[in-house]
Amino acid sequence: MSTARTAPRRRRALVVGACAAVGVLLSGCTGGVSAPSGSKNEINYALPANFTPNWIVPIGTPGHLNTNNASISQVLWEPLIAYDGSSGEIGWNKDNSLATDAKFAADDKSVTITLGDRHWSDGEPITARDVEFWFNLVRENKKSWASYSPGKAPDVWSSFETIDDRHFTLDFDRAYNQQWMLANELSMIRVMPQHVWDKTSDSAAVSDLDRTPAGAEKVWAYLIDAGKKISRYASDPLWKTVSGPYRIKSFSTSGRVELVENEKYDGGGAAHVKQINLLSFTTVAAEENALRAGTVDYGYIRASDLGIKKSFTDLGYHVERWSGWAVTYMPYNFNNPEMGAVFRQLYARQAIQMSVDQKTLSKVLFNGTAVPTYGPVPQGQPSAFLSDEQKAEPYPFSNSAARKLLTDHGWTMRDGTMVCTSPGAGEGQCGEGVEKGTEFKMRVLSQSGSTETDNMMSALQSSFEETGIDFDIKTAPVNSVLSQTGQCEKDDPACKWQLSFFGSAGSWYFPAYPSGDALFASGGGSNFGNYSNPEVDRLIDRTTTSSSLDAMPDYSKALAEDLPVIWLPEPDYQVSVIRDGLGGFAQDSLANFHPAMWAWTE
After folding, report:
1. Which long-range contacts (CB under 8 A, 24 or more apart) does 168-171 make?
2. Within a 10 A sphere around the Cβ of 122, how many other Cβ atoms?
3. C-alpha to C-alpha distance for 160 and 374, rounded to whole angstroms
4. Contact 334/344 with Cβ under 8 angstroms?
5. Would you say 238 and 222 are in contact if contact means Cβ atoms under 8 Å apart?
6. pLDDT above 80 for 154
């Protein structure tokens, strides 16, 4: 998130009015950018188009899952265990982690963590008590935590035992796959300053409130409420005690963020550049104008603009593809009162998937910077997690085969749209819950601000029409899409959404171990459409508990065939345009950005 990116998975001193001065479209520049100063103390980084940072609290809530929010938060408060691909391969980045070691018991039922000799920016030591603080808050408020999936963290941890200030043990409720536990569960732990945050109001004294259920709930409510006050991020004393290489200098509700070096930082991943300016744009066109004006040091272009790459290299930039460890898809809302019953029919999902020409979309629309995705495991990089069945495209593109599948199951084409004319659950009928006269009409709430997304939605609309499926497209900023298309019950007024699309640069960026417990397990925290399949739940559980080499491929096969979502091409996270002389890093395939690694090399 990551979320979802929409994650997956841009900067310099900003001047009011600079948009007009350098020719950037006024309608597309939301934060203001300065003309280049030549200073090597700053970097201007362009955030994805139409993304406005809206969360820094190290405990995520629904609607705030964008990977860019997480990237900002993690440079302020470093994770216990940070995983990233910034070195060129995915692994534990100990330079930007607060833990230095994790020793699993012989029976894989517990782990003992060692903390580094680290300090908060106010000089207080970082201790096991700060980890326990996070643990207590999440345990007592897990249903409000966006990363929660029943049976996963924090449910998997039966107890927290402090050994001393720098050592603690987490006991598990059973044995787990070490790779999954380390990369997917322990990496979610965010160490927070208990000595500053353990209170229920701005004026309240800090106490050990988190150690009782009622107290933990009140502290959680206070922190989440404070997190909603974006305009106070830079001024609120609450957010000034940090552990990461940067601290907040300014944070505008319009999308402009300035980060400055935390001079008290004592970890291994110190900042190389004093100030990072994160710039927000409403469109890619506006961002490209800023690149041409020289006011962005690290930005991006559309894949369709690769043909004019030279126009940017001539300006002193180099162009690099940023590939991601991700899958892209549109979730179905299986609880939608209008179309949920249709979506629950496997044949209907097969017909929809067969109407998606992923190979052509990847080659033409994304200019060869995308790969088809046929299941839940990323296909842009080779891995032992991928099944042969997923690789082989279980449902090849064919509008005629899709139409036949529908007519074989009780649908009849009328005025260009399939209509259920044979209701019932028997052979040749539409399926349980699908009423006679139901029209095969779908609507999607899709991310705005992306030409690639707009073009893909139009292409899908045309292809679905060939099959006899109506496809209505509505757009909104990505934060709105995420907030309006969450989990819901059938009778809930918020359950009117049918399909959601929140990222042409990757719907979901995985941890190093790409299990689907959050996405596709029944009740998973990011299972937005309420997909549920007991057999899939069993396979997902096996990926987290078994060390068998077959566990992930079996899961890959099952979801490639059962189609919990509409699988779509997985594009590169972005095509980056980077000023010559800026380097010191590789682009993280987990879609996070790591400003502390950036450096002017010339």
Report:
1. 168/112, 168/113, 168/128, 168/131, 168/132, 169/110, 169/111, 169/112, 169/113, 170/110, 170/111, 170/113, 171/109, 171/110
2. 12
3. 40
4. yes
5. no
6. yes
Residue 218, pLDDT score: 98
Q: Are 262 and 242 in contact (CB under 8 A)?
A: yes
pLDDT in tens, 300-334: 998 889 989 999 999 999 999 998 899 999 999 99
Question: From CA 318, how far away is CA 568, in angstroms rounded?
Answer: 29
**Which residues are CB-contacts of 195 (< 8 A; sequence separation ≥ 6)?**
120, 124, 130, 206
Three-class DSSP category at 161: strand
Q: What is the pLDDT of residues 60-85, one digit of tens each?
A: 887 787 789 999 999 999 999 999 88
8 A C-beta contact, residue 504 and residue 570: no
Q: What is the mean pLDDT of the chain?
A: 90
pLDDT higher than threshold 90 for residue 573:
no
Cβ-based neighbour number of residue 173 at 10 Å: 12
Q: Residue type at 290? A: A
b/e map 374-397, b = 16+ CB within 10 Å? bbbbbbbeeeebbbebbbebbbeb
Place of tokens 């004592």: 266
| Cα distance between residue 583 and residue 597, in whole Å | 8
Confidence of residue 381 (pLDDT cuts 50, 70, 90): confident
Kindly give the pairing relationship between strand 91-92 and strand 317-322: unpaired
Q: How many angstroms separate the CA atoms of 373 and 375, rounded?
A: 6
Binned at pLDDT 50, 70 and 90, residue 88 comes out as low
Nearest to 434 by CA among 563, 344, 530: 344
Tokens of 273: 């550049």
307 versus 460: the higher-pLDDT residue is 460
Asked if 356 and 566 count as a contact pair (C-beta separation under 8 A), the reply is: yes
Burial 522-541 (b: 16+ CB within 10 A, else e): bebbbbbbbbbbeebbebbb
> Is pLDDT above 50 for 6?
no
Indicate whether 5 pLDDT > 70.
no
Instruction: Give yes or no for a contact between 293 and 35, defined as CB atoms under 8 angstroms apart.
Output: yes
φ, ψ for residue 551, nearest 5 deg: -60, -50
Confidence label for 268 from pLDDT (cuts 50, 70 and 90): very high
Q: Is 356:465 a contact under the CB 8 Å cutoff?
A: no
Compute the distance between CA of residue 329 and CA of residue 460 in angstroms, rounded to an integer: 13
Q: What is the rounded distance in angstroms from the CA atom of residue 448 to the CA atom of residue 504? A: 10
Give me the pLDDT at residue 524, please.
Answer: 87
pLDDT in tens, 244-255: 999 999 999 989
Instruction: Give the pair of three-digit tokens for residue 154.
Output: 């924090």
Alpha-carbon torsion, ordered 589, 591, 593, 598, to 10 deg: 20
Dihedral, 78, 82, 85, 89 alpha carbons, nearest 10: 150
pLDDT digits (tens, 9 = 90+) for 528-563: 999 999 999 999 999 999 888 999 999 999 999 999
What is the distance between the alpha carbons of residues 299 and 576, in angstroms, rounded to a whole number?
6
- The CA–CA distances, whole Å, from 185 to 170, 242, 288 equal 12, 22, 38
* Rounded CA separation 253/255 (Å): 5
Contact by Cβ (8 Å): 5, 70: no
